[in-house]
């Protein structure tokens, strides 16, 4: 996992192995009909999401391999970015959903869970992308925006991006003719 520093924001970026990507793909495609039934227009006309109907897509669609890859990566990210490496963590994901971003779809600047007890980590796993269908931009925190540019991340199949849930981010428009499919989540960690 690579850790990018957008002071004071830390961003974790990793890519699943080809074998892991294959297993996740099989798992998701096996549940494709169930996933499609949960989709609605959650964020504008050109973004379909399960967010309004199902906020626990990992469990509902039995996406065990995807959940494990994300969970292992979240724990690695937290351990790599803490001074206390022996910090024992209780963890659980609190929300997970699928997004299908069609042509001209995008997501405005936003953040996720705030004012929660513990460390909340959010992120996105790219299931399907042509790498030109909308970049993820992470915004610097607080007053740091005067010294730092937004950190822009191009989508890539099997790429996982992690950041603290209170960090603002946005997804640029998909100006291509293919859909971008990603899984997003919030994870809560406590000592």
How would you describe what is shown here?
This protein has 191 residues and is of the alpha+beta class. It has a single domain, classed as q2cbj1_9rhob like domain (Jelly Rolls, Sandwich). 21% of the residues lie in helices and 36% in strands. The strands form two sheets. The protein has an eight-stranded antiparallel beta sheet, covered by helices on one side. A four-stranded antiparallel beta sheet has the order 6-11-8-9, with no helix packed on it. A hairpin with a 2-residue loop joins strand 1 (2-6) and strand 2 (9-15). The longest helix is centred in the middle third of the chain and has 17 residues, at 64-80. It starts with a strand and ends with a strand. The model has no long low-confidence stretch (mean pLDDT 88).
